[in-house]
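Think of the structure tokens as a kind of shorthand, similar to the way a musician reads notation: each symbol stands for something richer, in this case the local conformation of the backbone. In the example below we present two proteins back to back. Begin with the first one, reading the sequence and then the tokens, and try to describe in your own words what changes along the chain.
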Amino acid sequence: MRSYSVMAALICVLGATLTGVADDKKSDKKWTCLDLQPKANQKLKEDFHDNAFPGNNLANLSQGEQTLEGVKFNIGEKLIQLTSTQESVAKMPEKVEGIKVDAKIAKLHILHATGWSAEDGAQIGEYTVNWEDGSSATIPIEYGKDVLDWWCTSESGTPSRSKVAWKGENEGAKTLNNTIRLYMTTWENPKPDKKVKSIDYSTTKKTPAAPFCVAITAEEK
């Protein structure tokens, strides 16, 4: 009787383990991490914003695949930094076009932030989703709703329609007793049965806020 109980327990454990593996594989298949590297222009390990603050970088953000707020992202060596009215990002582009998707997707999860601030509600940029049929839709980036300054203090608020997905620190931010963080915005595709061809990323260049994008993950249909 005892041997039967032991055997039954082993079968339950094995079954649970195999189920967990199957669930992991199933969840792995629902994410498509977009490759930003062909369009990227700022290394995580190099100081941002014309070296205004030595050590102001994302060197302590782990590269490679990782899960943030339940979403799998692939963090590359570089990110996409756009320009603003700030002189220290004047050499950065206003728009980056053709981030490849080529898939039917249900949602986009965007890991991003901005250098400097703007008035709450001000649009500082946008993502343009381009479907294969030639139609498109825009995802506005509004300060206070989608992102805030990546430098923050314990008293800084959080975006009203995004999540704080990652927190860290760097030597540049420490000079003013700040830490750093990144935000995750989730966009639901209104046309999930149509293939998305690409995404464009642009800044309004009307405020000091200089948006940057670290990673984008498509949640498959």
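Once you have a description of the first chain, move to the second and do the same.
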Amino acid sequence: MPPRLEDLVTLPGVGRKTANVVLGHAFGVPGLPVDRHVFRVAQRIGLARGRTPVALEARLAAQLPPETWTSRATA
């Protein structure tokens, strides 16, 4: 499994959201997964606006510290 977003999205069936989840949970690399639900809710509550999920991801990333992008369970 490649540890870079750019490489992950080249794999069949892997989109940007899945790549960000893999980065965060498998590699501990901050990834901000934005799907249509995050896209809709973030705009509805006024957290960020964007015309596309990628644009909204960039705006959210600018507002949120990377350590909050992925929830890491502790044992």
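Compare your description with these statements about the second chain. The chain is about 50% helix and 0% strand.
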